[in-house]
Amino acid sequence: MTEQHPSRASEAFFGRRKGKPLRERQAQGIASLLPELKLDLSMAAPDDLATLFPVEVDEIRLEIGFGGGEHLVHRAQEKPSTGFIGIEPFVNSMAKLLGRVEDLGLKNIRLYDDDATQVLDWLPAASLDRIDLLYPDPWPKRKHWKRRFVSAVNLERFHRVLKPGALFLFASDIDTYVNWTLLHCRDHGGFEWTAGQASDWLTPFEGWPGTRYEAKARREGRSSAYLTFRKV
Ligand SMILES: C[S@@+](CC[C@H](N)C(=O)[O-])C[C@H]1O[C@@H](n2cnc3c(N)ncnc32)[C@H](O)[C@@H]1O
Higher confidence at residue 93 or residue 5? Predict the structure, then answer.
């Protein structure tokens, strides 16, 4: 499945890893707090992912490409008894998130700072209650569509790690990516789109705080679709 990719480390990540130099506190967060919270993929994953968290959690969610981290922090505060795994390879975003985790004293977050496919392949089968893929890099040009995170291979990865009946949530402001995701999920066959009517996919997810990328899309006049799939 992945043999066609020369570098496993960058199988599905094509973006920037670094932006502006980090401020001192941010650099400190990357040097000291990230190693504490980062998943150690050199060890076998625990059968029970709840043991990854220092507090009791009864549900595990994964957010891929959390960017500014607004959504991840909001959900972690909203659901203190859910364990969140957040993945973001862009170091400036990770540094910002670490600052929030420290300020708010969040205990229900574990992190990873590289390609999400590595974590997906590490996780035990049927171990997640939900995967959030919110405004993934859109790659609007047709010649770049193959870089999109939603692909047959990655949907199979999602399907493996989700518990039966667990959810995959996808948001995007790019029409061709929304259609792309609907078609890929249909073709996979293991995901049921939960929408009954148009208002279901035009309405943000429950308790939705918005994201930085979404705000930019709005300013530029683009609306969004919010898709919810259930693993069948
Ligand atoms: C368009 S941004 C959206 C960020 C955020 N979800 C939001 O809505 O503001 C997409 C994010 O996905 C991250 N990303 C891209 N490929 C990834 C991969 N293979 N694994 C994990 N994150 C990835 C990028 O670094 C970027 O921060």
Answer: 93
- For residue 3, name the pLDDT band (cuts at 50, 70, 90): very low
Tell me the pLDDT band of 50, cut-offs 50, 70 and 90. Answer: very high
Distance CA 165, CA 160 (A): 12
Mean pLDDT over all residues of the chain? 95
C-alpha 88 to ligand 1 mean position (Å): 6
Q: Taking Cα atoms as reference points, which of 154, 167, 26 lies closest to residue 90?
A: 26
Residues making up the chain, counted from first to last: 232
Identify the bridge partners of residue 168 per DSSP, sorted by sequence position. 131, 229
Does 11 sit in the ligand 1 pocket, CB within 6 Å? Answer: no
Dihedral of CA 16/212/36/157: which sign? Answer: negative
Q: Which atom of ligand 1 is nearest to the CA of 16?
A: 25
- Cβ–Cβ < 8 Å for 80, 74: no
Q: Cβ(120) to ligand 1 under 6 A?
A: no
Q: Which of 213, 218, 219, 224 gets mutated to test ligand 1 (max ligand atoms within 8 A of its CB)?
A: 213
Q: Quick check: CB of 89 below 6 Å from ligand 1?
A: yes
Residues known to be catalytic: 137
**Residue at token pair 């708010």:** 104
Helices H / strands E in the chain, number of each: 9, 7
Question: What is the predicted pLDDT for the residue at 5?
Answer: 41
- Whether the full predicted model's pTM is greater than 0.70, yes or no, is yes
